[in-house]
Design goal:
By secondary structure, this protein is α/β, with parallel strands linked by helices. It starts with a strand and ends with a helix. Strands 1, 2, 3, 4, 5, 6, 7, 8, 9, 10 and 11 form an eleven-stranded mixed sheet that branches. The radius of gyration is 19 Å and the shape is globular. β1, α1 and β2 form a beta-alpha-beta unit. The protein contains nine helices and eleven strands.
Length: about 325
């Protein structure tokens, strides 16, 4: 079977080095490249051969979703996923406009991936600890468990690689607490891919990630949370749903390096406070949520309904989610 990959990102910036490298690589590897704009995006944005879709184009294609999807928010990216699905992608790769690809970024995926499966009695596992000798943790990892490594074991196995998370070198995806207290850059060790066994939690992000068709519903980014939490809280819902298939998220060595856009670290910290306070409560809520085998979209809805019921997410997330599910049904 031929895998048709599409690359999706959103930006409010003019084409920079990272975007130009992504466009060049996409052209070389015959990968459709979809760039989603927002209200602050340059009106004259052009980046051949990328397909740039401004707000007006998004609203024409998906009017019902765009009616409830906020502007000036990272979740405009949801429209890009739908466009890729509508155009027949069988896997969607995503990144951000400050990640520069290495050769491995463009490598084709396979139907199965050789992995080391991590098993532990702990709820959370710091996946970065397997790729670095330094104390480093991923954005979204609960701070109260940073020094609580616990025992774990690994065994060889295979995965279908339904969700693949690559790491990022130089300026990796860490939280504001790390950035305010520890030194960068950090480069990760090269090592075999790792899959967390079902029931073992870790955040993953949207910076270097591939979703395969079977799990396309799980691409949904929630809007009624901060910019710094949208992909993290998505990751918790996604892995909870993924476990119903007997699979886990696969993490692999860095295939991008980040030259980070300018950030206000104290503002990042403020935006991450809901995660510091709620990430483990979200885990508990999702673990208690009873899902239905075989229906990914239904399980997605059940997870978000549980988070709203437990007052961990605003109730006005659900109308946006419903429009996502309707749009997904239309494009499939």
């Amino acid at each position: 079977m031929t895998i048709k990959r599409a690359l999706v990102l959103t930006t409010i910036n003019a084409p920079n080095e990272a975007l130009r490298l992504l466009a060049s690589g996409a052209q070389t590897h015959d990968i459709p490249f979809i760039v989603i704009g927002d209200t602050k995006s340059p009106p004259d944005f052009t980046l051949p051969p990328a397909r740039y879709v401004p707000i007006e184009g998004q609203e024409k294609m998906f009017p019902d979703l765009c009616r409830v999807l906020p502007h000036k928010h990272y979740t405009r990216k949801n429209v890009g996923y739908l466009i890729a699905i509508q155009e027949g992608a069988s896997e969607i790769q995503e990144t951000d406009d400050d990640n520069l690809p290495r050769a491995g970024f463009w490598e084709a995926t396979s139907e199965t991936v050789e992995v080391e499966i991590v098993k532990t009695e702990k709820d959370w596992f710091n996946i970065y600890s397997l790729f670095s000798d330094e104390l480093i943790w991923a954005r979204g990892f609960p701070l109260q468990f940073i020094n609580d490594a616990g025992e774990f074991k690994t065994e060889s196995g295979t995965s279908r690689g339904l969700i693949l998370q690559g790491l990022a070198d130089e300026n990796p995806d860490v939280d504001a607490v790390f950035r305010l207290t520890r030194k960068l850059p950090v480069n990760f060790n090269q090592r075999p891919a790792v899959m967390l066994a079902p029931g073992v939690w870790s955040p993953f992000n949207s910076q270097n990630t591939i979703f395969k068709r079977e799990v396309f519903p799980l691409l949904y980014l929630p809007s009624k949370c901060s910019f710094r939490m949208t992909d993290i809280w998505r990751s918790f819902v996604a892995q909870r749903c993924l476990w119903e298939t007997g699979e886990g998220v696969v993490f692999h060595s860095a295939t991008v390096y980040q030259e980070r856009n300018e950030h206000n670290l104290l503002r990042d910290f403020e935006d991450e406070v809901p995660g510091y306070l709620l990430n483990d409560k979200i885990r508990q809520s999702l673990e208690d949520c009873r899902l239905e085998a075989g229906d990914m979209t239904r399980n997605l809805s059940l997870c978000y309904e549980a988070l709203v019921k437990d007052e961990l997410l605003q109730s006005d997330e659900l109308p946006i989610l419903r429009e996502w599910c309707r749009a997904l049904e239309q494009v499939n």
